[in-house]
């Protein structure tokens, strides 16, 4: 099992590809005379519990507990956030020394980073330092756009970068990505207020476009990390996840009711499926399939609702997608190699070499 873990680590670091890893596993298996299985996927039950626990702590501090703390004033908020941050940083540093506990260690540090906006909010509240109208409470940080949040968001990004300097754990980037998305919305709101007559809160299309552009930028950043730092670990995973969800959510929420717009939406989702194969990232395939299914559902219920045969056709398409997914899962390495062989050198250089093994 030690050899299998080391080979998996080498694969994740980009030192060897999946095919080489599997050949070496088979070789050590034959020499040892006992089955040598590949390590379990990253997101097994244990890891789900790790992430669920971390998210519960973040939620408790970000959404629920602050109501009671607000009654004590800004200094109490800041003190509470700093105590939490120090405690979780100490816990993360302690666990980080044990390689098998790097995941809970990194999550503890991510929780510490997530305390940054609460600490800054407390200082702003205590000293009445607001760039715009004073927010009602810290809970409003999540659903409302407000220029006062900019300091909190910038501070969170800086705290995440500092944490990554000492704890190279990819999920910390997710905290930074969410703060950057909030920052993009708040800065856009400031620009709209300063230079246009539009009402940011009522201009849904403008907010949708900001999310669209931010998601695209996040995808490009994750792609660049995949290309430039493959040996450092899968730091692109969470950025791909958040960027893809933001980008796809923006194009899905477009209000264009024209038939051509819906057809283009379907083509974009088909393109996402191809993009998933190119980047070896499953999240794009998942979102692309959902988008195509939504378009087919629109055709079934709104366009061809009286055509009996169309329901059977859609069912067959769905069944075909399932079998295509099974085939791709089993032949993923071979398909990846075939794609590499078909691509011209210029495009091949833009294709990350590691497979997305995080499930």
How would you briefly describe this protein structure?
It contains 16 helices and no strands. The protein has helices at residues 2-12, 18-32, 45-64, 66-70, 74-96, 102-114, 116-127, 150-166, 171-195, 204-228, 236-252, 259-279, 282-303, 308-330, 332-342, 345-348.
What does this structure look like?
By secondary structure, this protein is mainly α. The chain has helices at residues 2-12, 18-32, 45-64, 66-70, 74-96, 102-114, 116-127, 150-166, 171-195, 204-228, 236-252, 259-279, 282-303, 308-330, 332-342, 345-348. The chain is built from 16 helices and no strands. The protein is globular and about 65 Å long. The relative contact order is 0.08.
């Amino acid at each position: 099992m030690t050899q299998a873990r080391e080979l998996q680590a080498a694969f994740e670091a980009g030192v060897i590809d999946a095919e080489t890893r599997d050949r070496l596993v088979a070789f050590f298996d034959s020499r040892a005379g006992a089955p040598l299985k590949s390590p379990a996927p990253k997101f097994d039950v244990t890891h789900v519990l790790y992430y669920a626990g971390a998210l519960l702590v973040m939620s408790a501090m970000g959404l629920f507990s602050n109501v009671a703390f607000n009654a004590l004033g800004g200094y109490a908020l800041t003190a509470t956030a700093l105590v939490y941050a120090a405690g979780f940083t100490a816990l993360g540093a302690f666990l980080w020394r044990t390689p098998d506990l790097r995941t809970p260690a990194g999550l503890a540090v991510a929780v510490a980073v997530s305390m940054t906006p609460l600490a800054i909010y407390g200082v702003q509240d205590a000293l009445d330092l607001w760039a715009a109208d004073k927010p009602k409470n810290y809970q409003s940080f999540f659903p409302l756009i407000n220029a006062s949040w900019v300091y909190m968001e910038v501070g969170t990004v800086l705290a995440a970068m500092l944490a990554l300097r000492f704890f190279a754990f990819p999920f910390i980037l997710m905290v930074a990505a969410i703060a950057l998305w909030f920052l993009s919305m708040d800065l856009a709101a400031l620009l709209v207020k300063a230079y246009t007559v539009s009402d940011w809160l009522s201009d849904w299309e403008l907010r949708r476009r900001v999310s669209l552009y931010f998601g695209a930028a996040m995808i490009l950043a994750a792609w660049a990390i995949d290309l430039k730092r493959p040996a450092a670990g899968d730091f692109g995973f969470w950025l791909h996840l958040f960027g893809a969800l933001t980008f796809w959510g923006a194009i899905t929420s477009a209000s264009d009711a024209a038939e051509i717009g819906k057809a283009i939406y379907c083509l974009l989702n088909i393109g996402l499926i191809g993009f998933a194969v190119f980047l070896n990232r499953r999240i794009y395939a998942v979102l692309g399939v959902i988008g195509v299914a939504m378009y087919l559902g629109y055709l079934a219920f709104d366009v061809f609702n009286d055509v009996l045969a169309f329901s059977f056709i859609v069912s067959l398409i769905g069944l075909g997608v399932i079998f295509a997914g099974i085939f791709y899962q089993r032949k993923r390495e071979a398909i990846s190699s075939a794609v590499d062989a078909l691509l011209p050198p210029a495009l091949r250089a833009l294709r990350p070499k590691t497979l997305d093994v995080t499930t």
